[in-house]
Amino acid sequence: MDKVIIAYVPVLHDGYRRFFMAHLPEARELWLINPTDLDHKPLRKDVRALEIPLVLQALRSWGLFERVEIFRPELLVGRQVSLAIMSEDDVSHLFAEKYLAGIAISYDTFFLRWDRTKALAVRPVKADISIRAVDINQYFALQSVKLGEQSADWWRQVGAVVVKDGQVLLSACSQHLPDIQQPYYDGDPRAEFSQGIHLDLTTSEHAEAAVVAEAASEGIALKGTDIFVSTFPCPPCAKLIAHAGFRRMLYSDGYGVLDGEKILRESRVEIVQVVFA
Fold this sequence. Notes:
Blueprint: E1 2-7, H1 14-21, E2 29-32, H2 41-44, H3 52-62, E3 67-70, E4 81-87, H4 90-99, E5 105-108, H5 116-120, E6 122-123, E7 129-132, H6 135-149, E8 159-164, E9 167-173, E10 175-176, H7 182-186, E11 204-205, H8 207-218, E12 226-231, H9 235-244, E13 248-253, E14 256-257, H10 260-266, E15 270-275
Parallel strand pairs: 1-2, 1-4, 2-3, 4-5, 7-15, 12-13, 13-15
Antiparallel strand pairs: 6-14, 8-9, 8-12, 10-11
Helix pairs in contact: 9-10
């Protein structure tokens, strides 16, 4: 009974090497998924993807496997594959549905690339520290929450407060433009999408973006300041916070989507969760 790794490998990087090594010598063969075998539009838009003969040649040169092949159905003829080891992603599932009926599959969650499922995944945020909302932190955290409650946004009511040396420099809540009542005139396009999908398609300006824009308009430097937000920022706002030079980002509630938390950490913005007693 054979165990094989079946993988879509659009580019070569160390993540794939580590993924392969994690399953050696248990699996001694690697079968490469040819994207032309799947009707999956996102693959056609991946400008990084190498031609599969080049990937085949390169992976054979690594010398990790006894055999590396581009998958073709004939490989299954006369073989007793006891287990197919695949990456947990959209391509693997599409491929398995089409070609691997009746074969046991082990999906490895090792991160190799972004796909739709990973992009839409909601993950708990790992704060650097959690603090009790007392004294000055309680005041500013509550202020951001109360600002959020003033928002006319139907779906995401967020408040943001920028603080330096114990003083509020800027504050805002998520609001629709050009008029805060805009959804009541035209409807809200966000109603067409589920939570976390197409975050950019909105008539609302996020609170974090509003305070950064106001700072630019008023000539206020944000480097080294703190920003209190009632809800953990979406990926675009997380990037704004990182680029603006905030020292700390303090939030009360929410979840992480896509790369927001990663960008904040790599930009050395301290992530602090404020816990209300």
